Amino acid sequence: MNSFDDNELFGIKNLISIVFALDKKSDTNRLIRTFERTVKIFSSLDRKAQIDLTDWLKDVLVKKYPGRNQEVSYLVQLFSKGEGDNMTYAIERLFDEVEEKGMEKGMEKGIAKGMEKGMEKGIAKGMEKGMEKGMEKGMAMIIERMLKKGKSEKEISDDTGLPLDQVISLMEHFSQNN
Length: 178
Known about the structure:
This protein is mostly helical. The protein has eight helices and no strands. α1 runs antiparallel to α2 (15-23), α3 (28-42) runs antiparallel to α6 and α6 (84-148) packs across α8.
């Protein structure tokens, strides 16, 4: 169906060609132009084809825009009456509202996702810092006990496996906080 251009489809002027034209993927402006052309052909279709097209159109729009039944019903009503100008305005309004809602949902999802990732990173970083401080404090307590037992800086370094300069730094940090 995408291999036919709109002029070919509308030149055929039957139910199937109209359905193909409306079913093509397109932007809002092209879809509005397609609806306008369809309204012009609609009156030339026999009554059964008009009913079939109207029913198909309603089914497609209800599925595409769930929760918008009132707007879709109004749009289909305008379509079946051949009110192209009013229908064009109704389509534009429907698409604008749907696009706006989509943007809002996208923003909400983006913010939620960003908050979630930020929280995860923040918690991980906080845990890491907490663990470092806890390890530092624990090591300082061990060094303090070893000093009280008369161990030298070199012995503490050998027993803990910490470099001598780190042992000295922890001892200085501990002595400043006492």
